[in-house]
Design a protein that fits this description.
Archaeosine Trna-guanine Transglycosylase, Chain: A, domain 4, 6-stranded mixed β-sheet, ASCH_domain, ASCH domain-containing protein
């Protein structure tokens, strides 16, 4: 078990925080199994906004993952299909116990110099 920091676009961070998006999609599964995700909101916010526990990690064909996650995907099907275009595998981190920090945090305070392209282990 470990903690990862994910870079997520602000519009999706908002949907995670309000409960509309309960799955975070990725094209690659982490080698180690995360039990917590630290949520970094990308530009223009550029801050760590909160965290969530990982309830489950779904790995399957993109069409199967969509069928299982679409109700709480926080995105439309066209965007999902575009994101996983030509991919054989989709990864969906099922989030629970989402916490929004009272004050956003700078990456430097976590010992991270710059935002990861996808994720970084903490």
């Amino acid at each position: 078990m470990c903690t990862i920091l994910l870079s997520i676009h602000p519009e999706f961070v908002d949907k995670i925080m309000n409960g509309e998006k309960k799955f975070e999609f990725r094209k690659v599964k982490t080698k180690r199994k995360p039990d917590k995700i630290i949520i970094y909101s990308t530009s223009p916010v550029c801050k760590v906004i909160g965290e969530a526990e990982v309830e489950d990690i779904l790995v399957d064909k993109p069409e199967n993952i969509w069928s299982e996650t679409k109700k709480f995907s926080g995105i439309n099907k066209d965007l999902y299909i575009e994101y996983f275009n030509n991919k054989d595998i989709a990864v969906a981190y099922k989030l629970k116990n989402v916490i929004e920090y009272p004050e956003p945090i700078d990456l430097q305070s976590l010992g991270i110099k710059s935002a990861p392209q996808s994720f970084v282990y903490i």
